[in-house]
Amino acid sequence: MRPENRLRRSADFRHALRRGRRGTSRTLVVHAAPGDSGVRVGFAVNRTVGNAVVRNRVRRRLREAVRPQLGSLADSGSWDIVIRANPAAAAATFDELSGDLADCLASLLPVAA
Length: 113
Hints:
With 113 residues, the protein is an alpha+beta fold. The chain is 41% helix and 21% strand.
């Protein structure tokens, strides 16, 4: 992902987690809060998901699942999005993760007209 699409500061993560809307699935929890500068996405994959190898694999898969959706997300305004992985994400396939992510985002964000 491009640097302008990454959520990096912990204050930005906290803002999205505390003030944003939440969408859930079996493998993911997605928080979305209105942002200031385009669409920025951050990932939270904690140790309950698995060891470092598993967590990094889940993070890479989520990054690739979000990449094709950035264009349509940008059409719906400025958003700060945090994607949290549940432990079930470790055993999920890429198709399951991308489907869950698409469902969560569709329930949270308005569709661009």
